[in-house]
Amino acid sequence: MNEIVALYKFTNLKKPQHIQKVIKARLKELSVYGTILIGEEGINGTISTDNPEALSQAISFIESIKGFKNLDLKFSQSTKKPFIRLKVKLKKEIVTIGDTSINPNKEVGEYVDPQDWNSLISQNDTLVVDTRNDYECSIGSFKNSINPKTNKFRDFPDWLEHQKFTEKDKKNKKIAMFCTGGIRCEKASSLMKKNGFENVYHLKGGILKYLENIPEEESLWSGECFVFDERVAVNHQLDEGSYKMCHGCRMPITASDIKSSKYIRGVACPKCFDKTTNKQKLRYTSRQEQMDLAKKRNEKHIGPKEEVFN
Fold this sequence. Notes:
By secondary structure, the chain is an alpha/beta fold. The strands form five sheets. The protein has a five-stranded mixed β-sheet. Strands 6-10-9-7 form a four-stranded parallel β-sheet. The protein is built from ten helices and 15 strands. The protein is globular and about 60 Å long.
């Protein structure tokens, strides 16, 4: 069984390059895989191993670094290996909203524990906003939440600008925000506060922590939750969900999509078939063939790029 942890923390770092090097070296020693982003504003990532002790040591090591104590952690398991390599990258933003003046280390909304979330979002004067991308919202979300229909997180400020909230709205409306693991809604809450909203809330630990803590019979979550690894999505029990991934466009696909004439394994799906050129399809076909050959030889292949977006 593969043990997985999604982690993040906003904190001020003075030497992210040094931290990048030491984390990469230690996780490599422990044979821990995944993707971690390091920047002056903190850390964000998801890591995994089939050795629980190694994962525990990796977390302890990261939390021993100044500024990383008490990381926000979300645990899950998978029979499928979610990552095939380790990447520790330096980034200007650990979650990209496109405006470095938005700083959760200075100002954020109010954290809401999963146990208190249902009560907040059930109130008539609360606007519930999903800060994830449109393709994530399409496979699951909280009931009656607003989907900004963004293609990427950096589109969120444009969505906010076009809502035309009045000064009265900013003073009186309750804005409850959520995302996969808490990092995007936390940063979005900082944006909202910067724009003058007074009553801003965000789900602590995100959807993953909610699913971990709230019994399904009490849940206001509907559908599955997209995750940025080979599992594609998880259900309410945090088990691997029913979706697969198109390695042409990195979008979730259903069993119905797979039956389509526009589905080519590892190459294209109905969502992207008409958007890619023949040259791209040939390149993706070659990549898939190499992946299949590597699997037959029981070898690793780098495969499509992996992302991190808690």
